[in-house]
Specification:
By secondary structure, the chain is α/β, with parallel strands linked by helices. Helix content is 51%, strand content 14%. Keywords: Oxidoreductase.
Length: 324
């Protein structure tokens, strides 16, 4: 707990979900925290939540897809906080749907928000992290989807795979400068992010499977616990952390038996909605949720109750900007 006390920390995508929890965890360990996101209203609400817990926090509006904005964010944070010791790149988007209705634009959007956002954050932060008296720490949030491609999440998986490779390469190159880089690969977490994901094709059915899996206790992880483990990994300068037993099992199995895991994913894909089952117009989760009151819908809502509660706690109910 003491090793992070007094350090300056920056979290991108920090206005809600996992980013908000990472900021809270860092503040709880004595850090001076800056949270950045696109939406100023979400940032203000997030800051109020953090300050109600006694956190010292500042906010900065930033679109991580724009390198000039990221440069201004990093420079301003270092100036206001007297340096920069910890940076966590967390911003991104989630798009759910089959490739038949997801085109090149969706892949570009994912790469811009997830990979280029992580890249710009890294490039602009590293000069300051090298100057940190405590030894800089950088963490990039990947996903199990970047280690093992997930059907109907291909833009997300491709972008997260690039983030994981970036983190591993930077870890090797920056060690000589006293900077540690941690690649974080969470599995399913109960953050309420299903309300801001973009669903394409048969949006209601896509929302149903995604929100259900993300909310089941045996498959998904409590987000507060995940944030604690991530910050501990960053504090201890671990090069890589994979969260949830299911994600660790999947990553190991894919490493030793990729043909088997690919075939298993093929079976899973066949259970998902077909590309021709619905309109291609994307809907955000808050609008894609089924409105009927069938037994199946009631069962899904029961299965996702923990995720819905997480959404209430983690500032997920406000207007969306498309980022976590």
């Amino acid at each position: 707990m003491r090793e992070l006390n007094g350090l300056s920390a920056l979290v991108t995508g920090g206005s809600r979900g996992l980013g908000l929890l990472l900021a809270r965890e860092l503040a709880g360990r004595g850090c001076r925290v800056t949270i950045a996101a696109r939406d100023p209203h979400e940032l203000a609400e997030a800051a109020e939540l953090l300050r109600s817990d006694g956190a010292e926090v500042r906010t900065a509006v930033c679109d991580v897809r724009d390198q000039n904005q990221v440069r201004g964010l990093v420079t301003g944070t270092a100036r206001e906080q007297g340096g920069l010791d910890i940076v966590i790149g967390n911003a991104g988007i989630i798009q759910v749907g089959p490739v038949g209705v997801l085109g090149a634009r969706e892949f570009h959007d994912a790469l811009d928000s997830i990979f280029l956002g992580a890249l710009y954050t890294s490039l602009e932060s590293l000069p300051y992290l090298r100057e940190s008296p405590a030894g800089g720490r950088l963490a990039l949030i990947g996903s199990i989807g970047g280690l093992l491609a997930v059907p109907h999440l291909l833009p997300y998986s491709c972008a997260k795979a690039a983030v994981g490779t970036l983190a591993e390469g930077l870890h090797e190159e920056q060690a000589r400068y006293g900077v540690s880089v941690t690649a974080v690969h969470p599995g399913l977490m109960r953050t309420g992010s299903h309300l801001h994901a973009r669903f394409t094709g048969n949006a209601e059915r896509e929302f149903a499977w995604f929100s259900t899996l993300a909310g089941l206790p045996l498959l998904s992880m409590n987000a507060e616990r995940a944030a604690g483990r991530i910050v501990t990994a960053v504090a201890r300068r671990r090069p890589r952390v994979v969260l949830t037993p299911l994600a660790r099992t999947g990553a190991r199995l894919h490493g030793v038996a990729p043909v088997l895991t690919t075939r298993m994913n093929r079976l899973f894909a066949r259970m998902l909605p077909r590309a021709d089952e619905g309109p291609s117009r994307p809907l955000e989760g808050s609008r894609a949720a089924p409105r009927d009151r069938t037994a199946a819908t009631r069962a899904r809502r029961l299965a996702t109750v923990l995720n819905e509660r997480a959404a209430d706690r983690l500032n997920q109910r406000g207007p969306s900007t498309g980022t976590r």
